[in-house]
Amino acid sequence: MQVDFYPIPICNLNKLIHTKMAFNIKTAELFSGNIRLDCSIEAIVGVGAFKIAQSAQLMLSPLTCSGINSILNYEIILKWPYISNSPNECACPPFTQFTLKDELNILYCEANVLYWAKALLKMTYEFVDHSINVTKEWPPFDIPCLQFVDAGLLLAYLNALSTTEDGALPSVKTSSIGMIYLGEELIPTTPSDGEGFVKYIHNGDAVPCDFLDPEEENIAQFLAFTQHVQYIKTGGQVYILDYQGNVVLILNMLH
Q1: Largest interatomic CA distance in the chain
Q2: C-alpha to C-alpha distances, 155 to 3, 72, 80, 184, 197, nearest whole angstrom
Q3: Which of 223, 207, 213, 75 is nearest to 146 (CA)?
Q4: Which of 31, 43, 122, 245 could form a disulfide with 38 if both were Cys (CB 3.0 to 4.6 A apart)?
Q5: In 95-105, which positions are buried (b, 16+ CB within 10 angstroms) versus exposed (e)?
């Protein structure tokens, strides 16, 4: 399936605040390519309250040195919203899609949450680097080097053959948007080389989760620290919560 991919960049927080700039595909970088999509039930890796996550392979051009399109057949997760026909019951197939317009509006909100979260995390690490440079002494503990998943809006096209007015054989191939996704790097959900999926801070509790593993405990404490920095540096307006992922990649939501 042919796709256009618009990656969500990492921007300076002050610039976003002063310009009130939102992520928009009209100004975003564009990569074109294809996705290999498995439409079976087995390809669905998760069903949330309003989003579905399914696995796919992404092939974009040109390749970049890192990130979601750094190699061919990149394993990704496609997320798309669905209409819950039975809110009080567990969601199950078949899933009802929103209209393309509503789908785009919902995923734009999701993309902008990640857009601003990346800027907040960048600001946090800049604060840490500045503090170390001022004290001229490295702290007596390890500082985790984390990043949010590489992600972007993905428009998938349906190819159709148009016919002439007299009903002659199809002559011209046209494309129309068939589906809109939020494409993200795949985070392992089962432990592999010590990098399984972990929830570090719950979205309903500011207290980080407890871990027996020293590395995971250190990450949880560091992520709690980032919340304090973000809250103070933004004048109590915003901070990131619901940190989850592995020892390198994390997911989030804003509060």
Answers
A1: 80
A2: 5, 18, 11, 13, 27
A3: 223
A4: 43
A5: eeebeeeebbe
Residue 162, token pair as written in the block: 């148009």
What local confidence, expressed as pLDDT, does residue 49 receive? 79
**pLDDT tens digits, residue range 143-198?**
999 999 999 999 999 875 444 555 554 544 457 888 999 999 888 666 555 567 88
Kindly report the three-state secondary structure assignment for every residue of the chain.
CEEEEEECCCCCHHHHHHHCCCCCCCCCCCEEEEEEECCCHHHEEEECCCEEEEEEEEEEECCCCCCCCCCCCEEEEEEEEEECCCCCCCCCCCCEECCHHHHHHHHHHHHHHHHHHHHHHHHHHHHHHHHHHHHCCCCCCCCCCCEECCEEEEEEEEEEEECCCCCCCCCEEEEEEEEEEEEEECCCCCCCCCCCCEECCCCCCCCCCCCCCHHHHHHHHHHHHHHHHHHHHCCCCCCEEEEEECCCEEEEEEC
Of the chain, the percentage scoring pLDDT greater than 90 comes to 48
Contact 23, 3 (CB under 8 A): no
